Queue: 2 jobs
Job 1
Amino acid sequence: MSRPALRLSMLCAALLLTPAFAADPPPPPTTQALLDASQAADWRTPDPDNLLYIDLDAGRVVVELAPRFAPAHVGNIRTLARQRFWDGQTIYRSHDNFVVQFGANVEDGAAAPPLGDALAQLPAEFERPADGLAFHRLPDPDGWAPEAGFADGMPAARDPDKGLAWMAHCYGVLGAGRGMAADSSNGTELYVVIGQAPRQLDRNITQVGRVLQGMELLSALPRGSGPLGFYEDASQATPIRSIRLASTVPEAERTPLQVLRTDTPLFDAVVESRRNRRDTWYLHPAGHIDLCNVPVPVRTPPRG
Amino acid sequence: MSRPALRLSMLCAALLLTPAFAADPPPPPTTQALLDASQAADWRTPDPDNLLYIDLDAGRVVVELAPRFAPAHVGNIRTLARQRFWDGQTIYRSHDNFVVQFGANVEDGAAAPPLGDALAQLPAEFERPADGLAFHRLPDPDGWAPEAGFADGMPAARDPDKGLAWMAHCYGVLGAGRGMAADSSNGTELYVVIGQAPRQLDRNITQVGRVLQGMELLSALPRGSGPLGFYEDASQATPIRSIRLASTVPEAERTPLQVLRTDTPLFDAVVESRRNRRDTWYLHPAGHIDLCNVPVPVRTPPRG
């Protein structure tokens, strides 16, 4: 909306030019100022057994898996990744404002790779008991669920009356495609949300993780012109070089990253800085934030 | 999430295999069934003076302008389009999960085209009086505003206490970029939302219309690697062949289309069919819809 120069001057204005009358309370910090002042303990380093590297010709997509939401699916996905099940498969669907989908596309008549040690059949994991899951609730109401917030760094929802929690379909969430039967997903076919949060899918399909880095390699893929965004010509599909668990990748080839913890006072302050934007460009602070508008910053670990 | 074959069988199951016990009420119709049964009066043909054709090498983006929300900006945009102000300019920003932006990018040192009869300075048009605007309210609450719904086919919000209405930043909405001053937009620089609805921008910037067709030509553009999604290399920008008002384009070159009216019982039924998905794939109807999840179907006019 504004030029970089304007954005910079905006930041400078917020940081430098605020009138410093003694009686004024200090202005609430911006998101960037909060992150700049963060401590090491505000960040976490994901377990490499929970990181999936999707390597494409254009670069790497890093996904964090959510084993406490979908233990059976995540277990199967780990097995499949160790077997390099997806290497040489494709991203064969790009549906505008909805999802990209990838895996062993058997529509074109090719045989799917063998499942090996992976299971062909898994239980549906649409929701889980709320008990035993630390849930960090957002201050605002959510239209789709009694409560919205974060758990294990994942956007999530909770129904205290029913004692259930589930992952929420936000931008960048990874899910396991299924057919008509609830338990027809086994993690071989996966999708990532690239549009307005399709929260109607919540509790209807198993979600398995969230993209931490490289979303633009998925979200900017040309849309498929066939029904539901499938490519009509197989040559339009994007080849997958490999999908591997970070824990199986040599150290030197790993992507070092840290994720902002979502259960800290700093995170609450970040949420508030987005609920009510204080940079001087904003004239009307919203006083509200939707779960899927909350950023969860990722960074390269600082040296030392 | 599912293969086309599965989707088709889902539809067939919903349409054909529902047990037909005499005592059962008929199942609520799906969105597609509702559209298939629509009448001519359920559709409207936009005024060609309100249609902007953005012609790119890859095809045409069709935008409907919203003169009752931003009369001064829409007036200026019509003047600029008649003068072919944007022809030969570029889409010079693609910010993942946020916006693409285009117009006369003067960052690279080139002179902006002359404004001609267009005005350099316009009033901010962030909101308008609610009076005099037919507002078709959605059934569900909205976190960002007291009321959400549609007006003139645009996603909109309303505050009855303050007597104000405004357009909502949903996927595909077109806005007028501005600098720090509220009244610093004049319609020469425009942006389109390509990600999760940035509703925090509501009432902070002037919105001027909505993309009806061709969103995928904008949303799938490679993201800019510079700050805020600006392209670092001007060669990455997407050339704009022309931006014209449909009313100035010869009939034979126009794109015939109709838009579903948003103030009819049929539209209410479509909204309900999305609030509670009845196709058999869905096991848990959401019972809720967000303003920016409501589709407003567009079609090629039927023959005859």
Note: Residues 2 and 89 of chain A are 40 Å apart (CA to CA).
Job 2
Amino acid sequence: MNKGLLIVVSGPSGCGKGTILAEVLKSGNFYYSVSATTRAPRPGEVDGVNYSFLTKEKFEELINNDGMLEHAFYCGNYYGTPKEQVMKNLENGKDVILEIEVQGALKVMETCPEAVFVFIMPPSVKELRRRLNKRGTESEDVIEKRIAQAISEIKLANKYNYIMVNGELEKAIADLISIINAEKMTRKRAEYLINEVLENA
Amino acid sequence: MNKGLLIVVSGPSGCGKGTILAEVLKSGNFYYSVSATTRAPRPGEVDGVNYSFLTKEKFEELINNDGMLEHAFYCGNYYGTPKEQVMKNLENGKDVILEIEVQGALKVMETCPEAVFVFIMPPSVKELRRRLNKRGTESEDVIEKRIAQAISEIKLANKYNYIMVNGELEKAIADLISIINAEKMTRKRAEYLINEVLENA
């Protein structure tokens, strides 16, 4: 049996990755790994759906027991990816989608170089600012910090295998599905098929 | 302006590439380069649509004037890709799809390494034989020659960037569209977008 494909998606806060991922997850048979964090839930966020909201103590316990695929400390909080379920699903041939902050994704590039890394950008920094303001959950000051963070993250997009722009939601959803679909047909992932086709002569 | 993407599609006779390409061409804004050949048209084939049917003299004249992107001699006939329109369309930013026999595609890999090469396989050699028999245009003897040719071609699929299987037509059409779409988002083709996004701060 083939191992599943590990798809790592990053993008600055406000790029729309959450909305895109929700739709892509509906479109196929994926395991979505919910990130863990020690930050407080935003209004409407549900534990175990948007994030696993952990205490600082519990999070550090996981780090110390090698239970995190990656973790990062960002704006005063831990963010990370619990390892166990990801590995189990990949071994069982199931594709796994991870949404990881850039610093975390860069670490996974080192430990899981066979994964496919996708960076989602907003169409422009101007549009990103508009989206963050529209969300209305954060102060002007926090938004400007997020913009600065976004700019430094976007500068790292060239470390990723694929770079996509979320200008129009429907197109962005189709784009991410295309990437996952096409990646499975790349030579390195599909060349085992050659023998399969030839065997049944 | 960005140059267009050059997409080179190969696959053994009977793999269904013609049908897949016809649908993919309808789905987007491509320039489809009609191959030239000196072989006789099969029933229903139209000059300038399926192939440009050329005399041996005319074909050799093009070869001698460097007017062919590639050409090959196969089963007693020339097959090749006239160069001029391909280059003109790419320069104008238009994506170009070429359907080329394997020997020709291998040559284009050398001269146009920035192109994307897609190999379409039948689900099995058994199924290929069934499809060629069903077509009913060729003798048993010719079909067995085509099968032998197909097997040696399929063994070269691992030279291509992408390998896809045409088991079910609708899926194969979507697969080829995914490849073209995803390829444009690969880092090397999309990283120019990073500056575009950052510029408009």
Note: Chain A touches chain B at residues 121-127, 151, 154-155, 157-158, 160-165, 174-175, 177-179, 181-183, 185-187, 190-191, 193-194, 196-201 (CB under 8 Å).
